[in-house]
Amino acid sequence: MNATTSSPEATPRQRVPFYRQLYVHVLAAILIGVLLGHFAPTLAVQMKPLGDAFIKLVKMVIGPIIFCTVVAGIAGMGDMKKVGRVGGKALLYFEVVSTLSLVIGLAAGHLFRPGAGFNLDPTKIDASALSGYATKAHEQSTVEFLMHIIPNTVVDAFATGNVLQILLISVLFGASLAAFGERGKPLVEFIGSIANVFFGIVHIIMKTAAIGAFGAIAYTIGTYGVGSVLPLLKLIGAFYFTLFVFVVVVLGGIGRVMGFNIFRFMSYIREELLIVLGTSSSEAALPGMLAKLERLGCSKPVVGLVVPAGYSFNLDGTNIYLTMAVLFIAQAFNIQLSFTQEMTLIVVAMLTSKGASGVAGAAFIMLTSTLLVFPVIPVSGMVLILGIHRFMGTGLAIVNTIGNGVATLVVSAWERELNRDKLEAAMKKHIVV
């Protein structure tokens, strides 16, 4: 069952009119939210609870959906060597593409030089607004992050909604259930039925997606205003151009090799992308991505393992943001980094991008962590980015979502568990998507 669209059995004759499509409602809500934020900012700021409530509703069901999907997939597969193989391939892909995204962000920072001309003096910048972020960054070292993957209790993992902790429990539970063989099949079928129930809940929640997107975007524009981006328009423009190039060239190239068109894939997940656009949260799209990728022909175990893991280990947009932001701050202070320092930056950013996963405002926390570990650049320079982080965060969340979808298709293809007929039918719009 798809969380946001019609069932896969639907035919073209059953296509819903465009004005009743979810993506149309969300797009209209975003436009209305932008207008309200610009012309009535005081009222727009009061819309924040609408966006927060929608994201909380989605997060409420993410844990059970991941658990049911992964357990049913692993237990149904019954081969733990295969589970390890899928996980290994996913991590290999994650690290290769993540490194590439970091390098591309670094290259873009040198090409566009968005921080040139600021000529800042670090002693004259008030960094008091960053104290909370610095505290959180100190709290999440890489070692602590690895230890944090293990929850205090099973219940605690679901209570806090930590995706990696839930994934660990799900893998262990699925492996244990697979060992039962035939005796475990009734429980596997029961868990699969429970998953369908939660996808049904998501289907209901998604009817409010337009309201959530309206509230979130209205608050953002009302709080920061369009004028707040003007002094830093060069950085924002360079950042979004780099994201576009990464999606088209890198992810598009991977898609071409794997036999699908990146633009058709983005059209297929358009509802999820618009929800991310409106809410600036990639987690809001997680349930829909799980369902749609399975419908696209990816096997359930691959989808269940790769997508949740990707939310911590495959952050393509965030990686581009990290290296571009660091170079921007360095350029603003007229700090020249050597080649060795830049290579060190890539290694540090690769580690810190894992260390802040699951923390609210994760991308900004990652940036703080990187600068704290890489002290050549003053942390106080992050004040420049604080006001526009929300605008940049939307773009990186969208690219993270696309990247995780592509990763799932790649790993499914490597495992020869990608149904090419379903993939081709969806891409050619022979089914309602």
TrEMBL record:
Subcellular location: Cell membrane
Membrane spanning residue stretches: 22-40, 60-78, 90-112, 163-180, 187-205, 211-233, 240-263, 320-339, 359-385, 391-414
UniProt xrefs under InterPro entries: Na-dicarboxylate_symporter, Na-dicarboxylate_symporter_CS, Na:dicarbo_symporter_sf
Main subcellular location of this protein, as a coarse class: membrane
GO cellular component, one term: plasma membrane
Keywords: Cell membrane, Membrane, Symport, Transmembrane, Transmembrane helix, Transport
GO terms (BP aspect): L-aspartate transmembrane transport
Membrane topology classification: Multi-pass membrane protein
Chain's role: Responsible for the transport of dicarboxylates such as succinate, fumarate, and malate from the periplasm across the membrane.
Protein name: Na+/H+-dicarboxylate symporter
Organism field: Caballeronia arationis
Organism classification: Bacteria, Pseudomonadati, Pseudomonadota, Betaproteobacteria, Burkholderiales
